[in-house]
Write a structure and sequence with these properties.
Largest sheet: 10 strands, antiparallel
Strand content: 25-35%
Number of helices: 6
Low-confidence stretches: 408-442
Order of helices and strands: HHEEEEEEEEEHHEEEEEEEEEEEEEEEHH
Mean pLDDT: 80
């Protein structure tokens, strides 16, 4: 029978526009839809529901062609003699070839002779300060030299008089002691001024010189700036930093389990985000003897060649080393789950059949983990959607548990067959019968 769909649409619009309540319009629409299904004989398309997996012993079995099997990617366990370990690292200046210059006297910057990026040699003056304090030190040196000359002449006169028998030995020895003290004071004053580059003149000009050859990589002062000695030291910015950037230090934060593989002389490779696809060789020079209480890591230092000046200080890198293994297999880190304090992995025994396996780990990396017990070489482990598999295990276990009958459901209460013997009345029924017998009749 042909169906007039136009008439059905007109009827739906008429019902919707009618001044009735909305639920009446919805009920009418539902009736028309049911009429359409009865007349055309078409039913909604339904997709078959895949049967759930079942538990058999310690294994979970999926029916063949189950859609979730496509989500459970696997990877084989691979035996290995070594594993690549990646540790966070940072490039810093080589402190053996680095100098940080701080002010030794208070003063004002009157001249700048060097800037960032400029190559300097040992002894070159980088800046000049006008310092009254340094002028006082120069004056002390000049006075000490004058006193030394005076006592030297006095000693000569006393020597001549003593040889002529005019003065006593006590006066002669006193003159010798005065001359020696004066010479010692000259040596002290000259050593102080020469330490900071000052000469014999009193000009209050303090030259800040470099003691190493290299490149000025940092400058934190400008002309006319006032500086003081209390501005220097740890935590304060140096006035100049001079270093040789042709070699750098690599600071590595190593875990306790990796210290044995990071002994001095070990070769490592560095990879940096700014140089994809490239690796740089370095050699470990020192390993710390204590563990940082905050990060629980050991400080390791390596030396890397930077003759091409490609690497810069404070760059972040990843240090890769090869750790030798005694036994175990490597699997993807995503295949391992942590339950409490135990690690578990799911092994595919055959297509569609999985079983959980408790494993022991010897090394945990970002990409791979070393399993020392619980897996064999070549076994397939689930590396993707293992949480989905764990949920299916729990659901299957819940379905396999025996269910207790509902006492309120009379259809499931077992019927007890009646015996031919008469049923003894209960105590409540006997009491009721006795009370009815003794009650007076009206």
């Amino acid at each position: 029978m042909p169906l007039n769909t136009h008439a059905i649409q007109e009827s739906l619009l008429a019902i919707w526009r009618a001044p009735v309540k909305r639920y009446s319009a919805i009920a009418g629409a539902a009736a028309l839809i049911a009429l359409y299904i009865n007349l055309t004989g078409q039913e909604p398309v339904s997709h078959p529901i895949a049967p759930p997996p079942i538990i058999q012993g310690e294994q979970l079995r999926f029916p063949a062609g189950h859609p979730q099997l496509a989500l459970l990617a696997t990877a084989p366990a691979v035996a290995a003699n070594s594993v690549a370990i990646e540790l966070p690292a940072r490039l810093v200046w080589n402190e053996e070839k680095t100098e940080r210059i701080y002010p030794a006297f208070a003063g004002r910057v009157v001249k700048l002779n060097a800037d960032v990026g400029q190559s300097v040699h040992a002894g070159q003056v980088l800046a000049t300060l006008a310092s009254p304090e340094f002028g006082a030190a120069q004056a002390d040196t000049a006075k000490a030299q004058a006193d030394a000359r005076f006592f030297e002449r006095t000693l000569q006169r006393q020597t001549e008089l003593f040889e002529a028998g005019i003065v006593s030995r006590k006066d002669f020895e006193q003159a010798q002691a005065d001359a020696q003290r004066a010479n010692a004071e000259v040596a002290r004053a000259q050593a102080r001024t020469q330490l900071y580059g000052g000469g014999n003149a009193v000009n209050q000009q303090l030259g800040m010189s470099a003691t190493v050859s290299g490149v000025v990589v940092e400058r934190n002062l400008s002309a006319g700036q006032e500086v003081r000695p209390d501005q220097g030291g740890p935590g304060s910015l140096p006035l100049f930093v001079v270093t040789d950037p042709r070699s750098l230090w690599v600071q590595i934060d190593a875990r306790e389990a990796d210290v044995a593989s990071l002994q001095p002389g070990t070769q490592i490779s560095l990879s940096l985000p700014n140089f994809p696809g490239q690796s740089f060789a370095a050699k470990i020079t020192a390993t710390g003897d204590f563990i940082d209480s905050n990060s629980r890591t050991v400080k390791v230092r390596a030396l890397i060649d930077n003759s091409q000046r490609m690497l810069k200080a404070e760059m972040l890198a990843s240090a890769k080393i090869e750790r030798q293994l005694t036994k175990g297999v490597l699997i993807p880190a995503s295949a391992v789950q942590l339950r409490g304090t135990q690690h578990w992995a799911y092994v595919q025994k055959e297509p569609g059949v999985f079983e959980p396996r408790k494993v022991s780990l010897g090394y945990e990396g970002l990409q791979q983990v070393l399993v020392t017990d619980g897996l064999k070489d070549g076994e397939l482990v689930v590396k993707e959607n293992s949480l989905l598999l764990a949920r299916e295990f729990r659901n299957a276990q819940e379905q396999a548990k025996p269910h207790t009958p509902d006492p309120l459901d009379s259809s499931k209460v077992p019927v007890t067959p009646k015996s031919n013997a008469p049923e003894a009345p209960s105590s409540a029924a006997a009491a009721t019968s006795s009370s009815n017998t003794m009650a007076p009749q009206k």
